[in-house]
Amino acid sequence: MRALATSPAIHETVVVDRRETLSGIVILGLYAPEIARLVRPGQYAMAVPPGGERAATALGVYEARDERISLMLAVVGVRTRELANLQVGAKLDLLAPLGNGFDLEALRDDVALVAGGVGLASMLLPAQHLTASGRRAHLYYGASTAEALVDESKFAELGIGVSVATDDGTRGYHGFVTELLERDGRAHDVLAACGPSPMLRAVGRIARLRGVRAQLALEETFACGVGACWGCVVAIDRSSPQAPRFPQASSAWDGHADAASASEYVYARICKEGPVFWSDELRW
Amino acid sequence: MRALATSPAIHETVVVDRRETLSGIVILGLYAPEIARLVRPGQYAMAVPPGGERAATALGVYEARDERISLMLAVVGVRTRELANLQVGAKLDLLAPLGNGFDLEALRDDVALVAGGVGLASMLLPAQHLTASGRRAHLYYGASTAEALVDESKFAELGIGVSVATDDGTRGYHGFVTELLERDGRAHDVLAACGPSPMLRAVGRIARLRGVRAQLALEETFACGVGACWGCVVAIDRSSPQAPRFPQASSAWDGHADAASASEYVYARICKEGPVFWSDELRW
Amino acid sequence: MKLETHPDLQVELGALRLRVPTLMGSGCYGSGEEYAPFADLAEIGAVVLKSVTRLPRLGNPTPRLAVTPSGLLNAIGLQNPGIEHYLAHDVAKFASRPCAVVGSVAGFSVDDYAYVTQRLAVRDEIHAIELNISCPNVGSEGETFACDANLAEAATKAARAVTAKPLIVKLSPNVTDIAAIARVVEGAGADALAVINTVRGMAIDVDRREPRLGNAAGGLSGPAIRPIAVLAVWNVAAAVRIPIVGQGGIESARDALEFFLAGASAVSIGTGNFTDPRVPLNVTSGLRTYLAQRGAGSLREIVGTANPGFLGPA
Amino acid sequence: MKLETHPDLQVELGALRLRVPTLMGSGCYGSGEEYAPFADLAEIGAVVLKSVTRLPRLGNPTPRLAVTPSGLLNAIGLQNPGIEHYLAHDVAKFASRPCAVVGSVAGFSVDDYAYVTQRLAVRDEIHAIELNISCPNVGSEGETFACDANLAEAATKAARAVTAKPLIVKLSPNVTDIAAIARVVEGAGADALAVINTVRGMAIDVDRREPRLGNAAGGLSGPAIRPIAVLAVWNVAAAVRIPIVGQGGIESARDALEFFLAGASAVSIGTGNFTDPRVPLNVTSGLRTYLAQRGAGSLREIVGTANPGFLGPA
Ligand SMILES: Cc1cc2nc3c(=O)[nH]c(=O)nc-3n(C[C@H](O)[C@H](O)[C@H](O)COP(=O)(O)OP(=O)(O)OC[C@H]3O[C@@H](n4cnc5c(N)ncnc54)[C@H](O)[C@@H]3O)c2cc1C
Ligand SMILES: Cc1cc2nc3c(=O)[nH]c(=O)nc-3n(C[C@H](O)[C@H](O)[C@H](O)COP(=O)(O)OP(=O)(O)OC[C@H]3O[C@@H](n4cnc5c(N)ncnc54)[C@H](O)[C@@H]3O)c2cc1C
Ligand SMILES: Cc1cc2nc3c(=O)[nH]c(=O)nc-3n(C[C@H](O)[C@H](O)[C@H](O)COP(=O)(O)O)c2cc1C
Ligand SMILES: Cc1cc2nc3c(=O)[nH]c(=O)nc-3n(C[C@H](O)[C@H](O)[C@H](O)COP(=O)(O)O)c2cc1C
Ligand code: FES
Ligand code: FES
């Protein structure tokens, strides 16, 4: 996506609000006036671990309003557990805003927003932006079970239709959200999605079949989050505007010997060139 | 000290109360009926780290009453920080009660209790026991600064005299608590002390000079806390009843060669044979 | 009773058959009784006893422990009463353990290993011998037996020659090529390999300006070294056919599974017990669930399945 | 201005003089500009650039990172555009950095090291060369240069022969005796040693039953390896007289001090930047406080003071 003119920095924020859903998802409200002002839809923050000893954690900026932002956390490992345990009053330092968000101009008239799990965190700001600029959107939202579906109402309040799916059928469509999207009759000009990789791949396939384009907000294990370590990459078309300038190269560890073996793709950094990519440019 | 007939176990406790002093010492109140019933003065608990990934932490049992106990925490490293961050409602698993506490019968008529820093945590139960059985005691209590002196009132309430010292002179005697003890006119039959090693060594020296005995509750980095790893040892007189049965041995890594080189001491486990030892039996 | 809900966790390390594939690491579990109030020893596979030497040893000066990020440094220095006192006073008690008992032998010369193994292995209370070859050899400038293929081979052969009991040899990660040492030790007659012992390390007290351990250097254990241990197992599993006891930082069934999938037939839990004595039981129950969920009838079915190079116990 | 409140933190690595003794680890700090929004580059000693090879390399398949207890596994696979593209498009930009710039050279043959060093070292934007010898040598069954004294010596000599710029050689901890390698590399003409590169490791995804890294194995960094790194510095400092750049898990001034007291003249921060980009500045300010509190006029005064075997830079 196009580089945005926001300048990231380290911000010292404070937890001012903490919600925990039945399914254990935690939403941390933070006093963070500068981030709230600067952040664009689809950008993220790196949360400095309060106890040190591990890399910072990448988190989408979920809400941003009135000097506050919020983060939505699913506990999957030690880093997210440590963050989810933060209580009101705790300090949290963030590197933000980071990455290139969605290309909002390219999200034209009728947009399908597709969210899987806490991928929802990256969908609210785009939804607000789309409705504010008078465009139509519909949210397809999937989770493992009914309890794990959170905050749909925030989308409905924007006047956005919401269709939900659960893996176990406890609410809405019984199955994956991408199956729901496929079966759904509605035609959309463009898709925008955030969620686990298999879901994003399926969204890419659906877009191809429908002859529309899809913007995918990718997730991968990050270390630096600022483009310094080349750890968070995804294979992308050499011709993509997001592809790093890079001569033809070999792909193997013994690459010293066969630079001639050209490859069609190069690795782009999700944290820097992304996290949002056009699905038809990915080679994954 | 003599082995006590309490049987340790793993207890699942819950934080029911949390106090934090100005100097950052945290006192966690726990619902732990069995420990409250079983614990003897000078025993300790091993706190299972809520996040795993590190050894359990040894903590003296500070208070015990009405199905509750409390722990007093000074944050010195990652483990104590993690525990000090626990909030009311959090679960905490404890291996307890552990170790041999003070030999209360040997603490005869007039006892000087000497506490340094959070060593105070191991002094309240003995103080309660002594006053309940009609014996006299006086508390000498030292800390770095006035703010770090906590809960003296709990001792005063028992009718125990309290003399305090601070390293920076912000309250009480300006200097080490052991200097205060030395200058103090009062004669005591016996000393009982808990605090940092240098303080305990000084208490041992004072006892020797005065011709009385001292029971010292030692601290050392623990790993298992149950006598399994031999990591927490202190050198002790071979003839002490607390000394492990052990043939004469060499002390060096190349001990294969010179078992004949007899030593006067052996290493006893602080967690198992202790944590309380008679100062005149230590060879440290 | 459906097979899937009771997957078979049995494992054989040479002739040592264990009901469950969990051993308690040498030096970390005492003789078992220390942990009896906190864990049901009938539910663990074996306790590996603290290493014993020919002559008594006082052990290292204090401090012997230092906590590091997700790890523990130790330098106990093999404090033990020596084999004769051990045989006379300690070994008889091991008969009452409701799990297998593995004796651990340490030494400073090939002759030490032979002598102590022979003396210990004749006792019925001892079901198998583990050779802790991570001691310096006094004959060759303090080089560690486990860090030199010739010394490792000699110690293994010496122990093998004096006992028919199952012989586990414990390898050190502090080498350039652990697979090469493993191959030599297999050839010398080991029935199984313990992979890995602690990683050399040091912490310095910056206030006192000296090492935090009395012995200066020590051995690093715990979750910090798990990735190092998993790779060592992976590499050894592609080099030998005898079973491997994987160890280093195991605190959960998922941690243990990393070792099984890399090619370990059993696992050992040391420092994990210091975190929580329930770890060994959590591991076995978690393994049962994992296998049942995947319809596997036995642990054996998944051993080495993540490792394309896995040779497999013969 | 009292001397004690402004202790001298300067360090010399051969002819490379740094105002403050902090280098940013190769591969962890990009070319510096990535961290410019978060850290004042004028306050760091040097950025060590991502390693560059003779030919372009796409790098390893994904995933390339896995988080482990207090550690990070990486297998980037030296993704880089190759020396020619690098010289043509990237190097000129480094001139604007307000700190020293150290080029990092990787290779798969002795000739690679010589060639890339020569091409890179002539550029004024590059103030020193670090030789990353942790790559497999294709000529000898994939053995790593840093794990074989002969290969390490050959690579160092080859680089030394083609440049007079300060030459730092980066050693691997994955060896039986790092001090022996250090001695050979010193003899081959290195001006300084970087100790240590990452420790080999692996993590396995037990759900998918395969290694979590696309490359299977990777390098472990971060606080988990700090004790391993401190001991490596301690041992190397007793074996050589050239300065040592200590690294492995540094996140604070206290962490850095462990390395200085063990015998390092400077430190490098890699993974610590991923924890918090303020780590390098916290390290220098913490060092100043530590020295001032002890009345030390310079960092040099305390280097190696915990290590009785310390030989000291000549
Ligand atoms: C741009 C971006 C935006 C993001 N936004 C959000 C957001 O808004 N909210 C949010 O909750 N998350 C978000 N994420 C994801 C979040 O960053 C990760 O979930 C987090 O970094 C995980 O860190 P951790 O240490 O908790 O888990 P890790 O320890 O890193 O574990 C990560 C995964 O590995 C698995 N795992 C761990 N150990 C093993 C093992 N032994 N075997 C097999 N699998 C294992 C875990 O179960 C988990 O699925 C985002 C990620 C990116 C890149
Ligand atoms: C029987 C017994 C009873 C105890 N009772 C209590 C009690 O009631 N309350 C209480 O608060 N504590 C008590 N302790 C002490 C407590 O167990 C320890 O303080 C705790 O284990 C420290 O763990 P940690 O991980 O927080 O610190 P660690 O990380 O283990 O650090 C311990 C010490 O090492 C220092 N240190 C860490 N890193 C470095 C470094 N790089 N250089 C130099 N020094 C360093 C720390 O500053 C600290 O002083 C007791 C101990 C024992 C043995
Ligand atoms: C305190 C302590 C003492 C140990 N003593 C011995 C020993 O005597 N013999 C031995 O072979 N291994 C010994 N070890 C190594 C462990 O058995 C184990 O191999 C190692 O710690 C790695 O596993 P872990 O991370 O699960 O602890 C010891 C480890 C620790 C932590
Ligand atoms: C993501 C990542 C990439 C790295 N890339 C390189 C590299 O290209 N060349 C190199 O010499 N070292 C590389 N390293 C090693 C670091 O420079 C450093 O020596 C090591 O990580 C130990 O220090 P640390 O714990 O502070 O990170 C890399 C480390 C990481 C974590
Ligand atoms: S996480 Fe480091 S480059 Fe993306
Ligand atoms: S801490 Fe293990 S024996 Fe005391």
Write the layout of secondary structure elements.
The complex is a heterotetramer, with two copies of chain A (284 residues) and two copies of chain C (314 residues).
Chain A (H helix, E strand, L loop, with lengths): L8 E12 L5 E6 L1 H6 L5 E4 L9 E4 L2 E3 L2 E6 L4 H7 L6 E8 L11 E7 L7 H9 L3 E8 L8 H5 L4 E6 L6 E2 L2 H7 L6 E5 L2 H14 L2 E5 L15 E5 L27 E5 L6 E3 L6
Parallel strand pairs in A: 8-9, 8-12, 9-10, 10-11, 12-13
Antiparallel strand pairs in A: 1-2, 1-7, 2-6, 3-4, 3-7, 5-6, 13-16, 14-15
Helix pairs in contact in A: 5-6
Chain C lengths: L10 E3 L2 E3 L3 E3 L21 E3 L16 E4 L2 E4 L8 H7 L10 E7 L3 H12 L6 E5 L3 E2 L5 E2 L4 H14 L4 E5 L6 H10 L4 E4 L3 E3 L2 E2 L4 E2 L6 E4 L4 H12 L6 E4 L5 H10 L3 E4 L2 H4 L3 H15 L21
Parallel strand pairs in C: 3-4, 3-18, 4-7, 7-8, 8-11, 11-12, 12-17, 17-18
Antiparallel strand pairs in C: 1-2, 5-6, 6-16, 9-10, 13-16, 14-15
Bound molecules: flavin-adenine dinucleotide (2 copies), flavin mononucleotide (FMN) (2 copies) and FE2/S2 (inorganic) cluster (2 copies).
- Tally the helices of chain C: what do you get? 8
What would CATH call the architecture of the largest domain in chain A? 3-Layer(aba) Sandwich
Q: How far apart are the termini of chain A?
A: 18 Å
Q: Biggest β-sheet of chain C, characterized?
A: 8 strands, parallel, barrel
Mean pLDDT of chain A: 90
What does this structure look like?
- The complex is a heterotetramer, with two copies of chain A (284 residues) and two copies of chain C (314 residues).
- By secondary structure, chain A is an alpha/beta fold.
- Chain A folds into three domains: 9-98, Beta Barrel (Elongation Factor Tu (Ef-tu), domain 3); 104-219, Nucleotide-binding domain of ferredoxin-NADP reductase (FNR) module (Rossmann fold); 233-272, no CATH class.
- Chain A is built from six helices and 16 strands.
- A seven-stranded antiparallel sheet of chain A has the order 4-3-7-1-2-6-5. In chain A, strands 11-10-9-8-12-13-16 form a seven-stranded mixed sheet, sandwiched between helices.
- In chain A, helix 6 (197-210) links the parallel strand 12 (190-194) and strand 13.
- In chain A, helix 5 packs parallel to helix 6.
- Chain A is globular, with a radius of gyration of 19 Å.
- Chain C is an alpha/beta fold and 314 residues long.
- Chain C has a single domain (11-56, 81-205, 223-301), classed as TIM Barrel (Alpha-Beta Barrel), CATH 3.20.20.70.
- An eight-stranded parallel barrel of chain C has the order 3-4-7-8-11-12-17-18, surrounded by six helices.
- In chain C, strand 11, helix 4 (178-187) and strand 12 (192-195) form a beta-alpha-beta unit.
- In chain C, helix 5 (226-237) runs parallel beside helix 6.
- The longest helix of chain C has 15 residues, at 279-293.
- The A-B interface holds A 51, 53, 78, 81-82, 85, 87 and B 51, 53, 78, 81-82, 85, 87.
- The complex binds flavin-adenine dinucleotide (FAD) (2 copies), flavin mononucleotide (2 copies) and FE2/S2 (inorganic) cluster (FES) (2 copies).
- One flavin-adenine dinucleotide sits between chains B (44, 57-60, 72-74, 76-80, 118, 121, 219-222, 275) and C (67, 205-207).
- One flavin-adenine dinucleotide (FAD) sits between chains A (44, 57-60, 72-74, 76-80, 118, 121, 219-222, 275) and D (67, 205-207).
